[in-house]
Amino acid sequence: MESIYIIAIIFFFLESLIYFISPISITFLSIILLGYFFWIFKIKNIEIYVFSILFLLRIILGINFNNYNIGDIVEIKTEILNGRGKIEKIDNKFLKDYKSIYVENIEEGNYKFIGEIKKIQDKYLILDIFEKEKRVEKDIEIILEKKIIKLRKNLSNGCVNLIKAMILGDKSNVYREVENKFRYSGASHLLAISGLHIGIISGIILYALDKLLLKKEIKYILGLIILSIYVFSIKISPSVIRAYIMGVVYIIGNIIYEKNDIKKSFLVAFIINLLIYPNSFSNISFLMSYLCVFTILWIYPKFQIQIKVKMKNLWNYLIFLFSIQIILTPLTLYFFNTINFLSFFTNIILTPIGSVFIILGFGAIIIPSIFSKFYLMIVEGTYILLEKFLNLFEKLPYLSLKIENKIDFKMIIFFYIIIFGIIFSKELKSYLKNQRKI
Description:
By secondary structure, this protein is of the alpha+beta class. About 60% of the residues lie in helices and about 10% in strands. The radius of gyration is 23 Å and the shape is globular.
């Protein structure tokens, strides 16, 4: 186990403490933990202490730990979709817990509101707005919107709305009933840009560059530039940036090292994300993206069938999907109050079709309209296939079960602490033991 693992574990520990104790207590425990590492285990790696202190300061200075009351005047940054938006910042600091804001008669877009809190509930608040400031659209967003208008001439509205959501990060036109179908089928991860989307689009870019027979370093540098242009051209959100960071770290790892260690790349991306967004554990897209990759890298290999058996690949694929479902179930319980009993089955079908649709949708955006008539027929056909399966799964009973009782977020965090403890405890003990011998 190397320093990067220790730093990631410390970051995870400190981030978890946010939801259990006060900032003063976090500071006190951090000092004890780092002192224990230094004097008891004789860990001399300076980067461990530097990054730990930086993250502690980021938590204390970057997160709003205040308890707000009705009547308080606040400044809120959010993106409004259908009269609702997740609060990104309040009084210029990240909010510790997941909360949304409901507004009336406000057009969709990114806003900064100043107003008085009129109502507070578990996961949302209502604001009496005094001032509002809307972010001006970038020129490239206007160009992409014109492309979307052109696509509507050859594709159905439903198909274009999905392209806009999956490729451009704008879910404003996705019908509520379509969102509900994705959620019921356990495939809501396909709608929002996540690590899956960035991974697919990065793969398309690198595959195309590979055909040019470029040197490895040049190929990955160009890939990084093209990916960056894509990300900063679409609708930027914290979830997009988080997924982008994961892609960037992987590409840079391939530029710097002869053989990239994907586990280290994942941990570096995890650390960078927490430094930028110290409240990441309250963001479902972050949790789902990183827990999926964590499951793929550390949990699935422990259950993967290695011996020769009939339909080995199919069984391994089922184990793969089931592992992810088990790990993500606490999140769906907390954020959606549902348990997706058979989402591993529906995702056998929906995830591959959705992935193909992402690839084709990306092509539909970049291919000039004059050359794309036949191509768009394939895009529409893929959308129809995806829609048919969503409609089929919607009719199946008990795919998802609604849970009325609210789950405490502390229980969710505690569940993942146990999982990570089981995965890393043996390696951590071995590392600390070796450090004491040095």
